[in-house]
Write a structure and sequence with these properties.
single chain, about 425 residues, alpha/beta, Spore Coat Polysaccharide Biosynthesis Protein SpsA, Chain A, 2 domains, 8-stranded mixed beta sheet, 16 helices, about 55% helix, globular
């Protein structure tokens, strides 16, 4: 099946579902209008807490169905030397584990490692100096933020294929091999994102919730976008880039979401951004709510930064990535309605008032079960391919399915407003 057939097939299924749902929801809109006194407000509520999220869920489900993984066909002799680029700031506790992962990489050519110490105030440099790792260079700069550190390292990289990882990222033994194979498989790829999972999930219940988000939600969305060669985030935690293209675009911009802004710049320039589901990396996630709050606010702000710099990407024709950027325009609105309408409606339903949350909203439960089941099936396949196993955590999975969005949407809304009103940025 050709790419355009998969794209329009997925959309036809999703639009059909949305159309049927909208027809069925007429009684709900009418009932809600009697309560709110406004048909327009009632229509918007139903659209943004039910119909549009339903369309997006079915689109994801259909895209995952059409997704057929094909390993990159690259000869071992064709793998070039690569540069590993790491920006480090106060990572004394993590760098040894990161380099343990690098030391076990199975890669058929040379790997140089460039670490840019971004003005760390701890013992990060001492830890790095004591590693005695081959082809390691440490560059120290004043603390200027992650984008500046990456750009300093970019100029020092000696090879055209650059793999960025965070200073707390642990790579599976064939991660570099798999991600480089994918970027070599198509000369139009400017970047390829890897499959990033959680390494510290046992440290808190919040970390276990995030583990399911990385394992199922984030990876599935990347597979959907990667299917159409328009992955929207080549995350700094683990991605491969072509140095020559990065230099043309002046590297990473000084943004709180520097990886999002760079990825959208690559897409706007006409390049492809892929995703390699068998290139596994494991990163640390926030273990307390304050850290989680700051991280997700940064992610939300990064999306708004992307819109500010590259919104005109939406109007580009014959570009599947433009479609997904357009979809991202809905997320701030959906999060707003989820925070200020759905969550209060859920509280009202607990006291017997079913104006907003009622029988119709329960219809999404079977759909969510199907989506999660397909996500688990797909991720298990790729984990098995790499010789990894998915940990059993049914309680965490149930909590992820039922309460995770209730936790995340209000945080995202705060992040959107912070960026819109230009709050001070921090790395």
């Amino acid at each position: 099946m050709k790419l355009w057939q998969r794209f329009w097939g997925s959309n036809l299924i999703a639009l059909s579902y949305a159309g049927i749902g909208f027809y069925i929801a007429q009684w709900w809109i009418a009932s809600l209008s009697d309560w709110t006194g406004s048909y327009v407000l009632s229509l918007l509520i139903v659209l943004f807490i039910a119909i549009i999220p339903g369309y997006l869920n079915i689109l994801l489900l259909a895209s995952l169905y059409f997704y057929k993984y094909e390993p990159a066909n690259v000869k071992e002799s064709d793998f070039p030397p690569v540069s590993i680029l790491i920006a480090a700031y106060n990572e004394e506790e993590a760098v040894r584990e990161t380099f343990r992962g690098l030391s076990h990489q199975v890669y058929p050519n040379e790997m140089e490692v460039i670490v840019v110490n971004d003005g760390s105030s701890d013992h990060t440099v001492d830890k790095l100096a004591g590693l005695h790792f081959p082809n390691l260079r440490i560059i120290s700069t004043n603390h200027g933020g992650k984008a500046e550190a990456l750009n300093v390292g970019l100029k020092e990289c000696g090879h055209d294929i650059i793999v960025t990882i965070d200073a707390d990222t642990f790579l599976h033994h064939n991660a570099i091999h798999q991600i480089v194979a994918r970027i070599l498989s198509d000369t139009e790829y400017a970047a390829v994102a890897g499959n990033v999972l959680v390494k510290n999930e046992r440290m808190s219940r919040l970390a276990r919730l995030q583990s399911w988000d990385y394992m199922l939600g984030i990876s599935s969305v990347k597979r959907e976008q990667g299917l159409f060669q328009g992955t929207l985030v080549a995350q700094g935690a683990f991605s491969a880039f072509r140095k020559s293209i990065l230099l043309k675009l002046d590297g990473w911009q000084d943004r709180i979401g520097e990886d999002i802004v760079l990825t959208w710049a690559l897409l706007k320039a006409g390049y492809k951004v892929g995703y390699e589901p068998t290139a596994f990396a494991f990163t640390g996630v926030p273990i307390n709510f304050r850290q989680f709050l700051r991280q997700r606010q940064r992610w939300a702000r990064g999306m708004i930064e992307g819109f500010k710099d590259h919104l005109n990407l939406v109007w580009r024709r014959h570009n599947y990535s433009a479609f997904f950027v357009a979809i991202d325009l809905f997320f701030p609105i959906i999060d707003f309605f989820y925070t200020f309408v759905f969550i209060p409606g859920l509280i009202m339903a607990c006291f017997g008032h079913f104006h907003i949350v009622g029988l119709f909203t329960l219809l999404v439960i079977p759909i969510n079960i199907c989506i999660i089941a397909m996500m688990i099936h797909a991720q298990k396949k790729f984990l098995n391919y790499a010789g990894l196993k998915m940990r059993e955590n049914p309680v965490g999975l149930a909590l992820y399915a039922m309460v995770y969005q209730i936790l995340v949407s209000p945080i995202c809304v705060k992040g959107y407003f912070q960026e819109i009103f230009c709050y001070k940025r921090k790395w």
